[in-house]
Amino acid sequence: MMMVVKKKKHYFRCCEWKWIVLCQLLLANAVCASHHGNPANDLVDIINKNRTAQKLPELNDSPGLGCMALQYVELCKDNCTSNGVVNCKPPEDDFTEVFGPNCGVELPTFGTITGHVVGCQAKYLEPSLAFSHVLVNDSKALSLIRNKSHTEVGVGLVGARKGSFFWCILFSDGQTNSTFVLEDNGEGIKQKTGCFSGSTFPCSGGHRIPVFLNNFMTMVLLNIFLLQHLYQTWFVMM
User: Which domain, by its residues, includes 199?
Assistant: First the structure.
């Protein structure tokens, strides 16, 4: 009888820590799933928090700028150097002749782009790390982020076939909701790959892989825990 009691105590202690770990995994996964799932929007939030910390006004999140930022990195996505520099500089005319039309930006609403920041990395990084390690890793980029002339911002990101990820931030001094306006009541043209801020469309492409892997691994661990629990329950009952 004593042997059975000890075995049960050991069993419940063993299960206790496993269920604690499982609950933490499920909680982390739930938090991830409940998020809006657009890392470009996260970057806009980080930019605005950085500005307000310096008593600067927040920037309007412009979907038109965001889509053109995506177009920028889509064009340059095979040009990432070993030290994380985007070795690509599209002609200025591409904004009005290529990027804008591909996004569905209404031509009469084109404003002035007052600055841009681009960066790339061999692997996907969470928005906060992408901001500090890739996009704003020197005083020049930080000064551009905090420029007082900016009124609007747009962020785009995309994953390349070789595994690299590219980010682009575009700034403008245009008037809110009157520059870089997307056609079709702000919907614009749906993009096949990548992600951009202010979009009503879900992100697509390689940047969703980390989220998929997180969900997959959580489900694998959940099944392992459940199988162990069933086996140990059956063993104790014997």
Answer: 39-204
